[in-house]
Amino acid sequence: MQKPMIEVFKTNVQEMEQSKMIVMKLLEHFPNSIINFDLEDCDKILRVHAASISNHSIIELLNSYGYHCEPLP
């Protein structure tokens, strides 16, 4: 069985409503994932917990909605 992965991204998402919309869109592309934002963090963290994660796809999706997103080391 594949070990779940967790990826953490820095974003410029500011509003709770924006984060909810993005989580819904990401779940359409990555069903069975756990996706959430920590907007209290200075980096406006996006966490994606899934069996397999495509950083490129996540970044592209956020970019397509006008948001900046980069993986945190």
Description:
With 73 residues, this protein is α+β, with helices and mostly antiparallel strands. It is built from two helices and four strands, in the order E-H-E-E-H-E. The protein has a four-stranded antiparallel sheet, covered by helices on one side. A hairpin with a 6-residue loop joins strand 2 and strand 3. It is globular, with a radius of gyration of 11 Å. The model has no long low-confidence stretch (mean pLDDT 94).
Please tag this protein with its features:
alpha+beta; four-stranded antiparallel sheet; 73 residues; 2 helices; single chain
Strand order, largest beta sheet: 2-3-1-4
Rg computed from alpha carbons, rounded to a whole number of angstroms:
11 Å
**Overall shape:** globular
Instruction: Give the mean pLDDT.
Output: 94
Main sheet, how many strands, which sense, barrel? 4 strands, antiparallel
Structural class: alpha+beta
Strand composition percent: 25-35%
Describe the protein's topology:
Layout (H helix, E strand, L loop, with lengths): L4 E7 L4 H14 L4 E5 L6 E6 L4 H10 L4 E3 L2
Antiparallel strand pairs: 1-3, 1-4, 2-3
Write a compact overview of the structure shown.
The chain has 73 residues and is an alpha+beta fold. The protein is 33% helix and 29% strand. It is built from two helices and four strands; from the N terminus they run βαββαβ.
